[in-house]
# Entry
Amino acid sequence: MRNLCASLLIGATVLLSGCNTTPYDRATIYYDRTQFTTQVSKDFPDIKGPILQHGRCSLLISTPGSTTGTYHFCTFALTQDELYVQGWDATALKYKEILRVDLSTLSKVALDSYFRTNQVQLIEQRRQSALSVMIDDGGYHDTAATERVYETIKKRGVTVVKSEGMMMPPAPPTPVVIPIVIPK
# Structure
C-alpha cells in the first residue's frame, strides 16, 4: 500500500510538472522591446515616420481570395503610412524584410477572430496577408494589440470588409497507409 501511494504521488508530480520549453517564435526571432526601434531603424533607414506600434507577430502571405498561405514568425513595425514586417537573420545579426505594405495601396482590410486568435487581413490588388500580434515572450496571440493594428489601419480610410475566414498555413504532409492484402 505504501508503494502504491508513493508511486501515485511521484506519477502525479511528474504529470503536473509539465515541460518548460521556449516557444518556437521566441527561439527563432530576436525581439527586445526597448531596443527594437533603434535596431530596426538601423537595419531599414528608409522607414518613413515614427513607429506607432511594434512587436512579435505571425504572418501568412497568399493571393487574394485564398485562405492558405506561407507562414512566417516575425516582428513588425507600424508607422502612419506603412507596415514593415521582418524576420531575423541570426548569421548577420540583423532584421531582413519579409513584407512591406504601403497603407495607401491597400484595397481592403478585415479583422477575423477565432476564439482568442485575431488576424488583421490586408488585401492588396495582387497579395493578401494576415498578421497576428504575439506577446513579447512569444507563444500566445495578443488579441488587444492585433485589434490596435487593425484600428490604426482602419483610420487611414481603408475599406473595411467582412473576412472570408481565417488564413491558415498549408496542411502538413501526412503518411499514407495503403493496406496490402496477400491472398493465400
Observations:
- The beta strands are 53-62, 70-78, 82-89, 94-102, 108-114, 117-123, 128-134.
- The chain is about 25% helix and 30% strand.
- The helical segments are 2-17, 24-28, 36-43, 143-155.
- The mean pLDDT is 84.
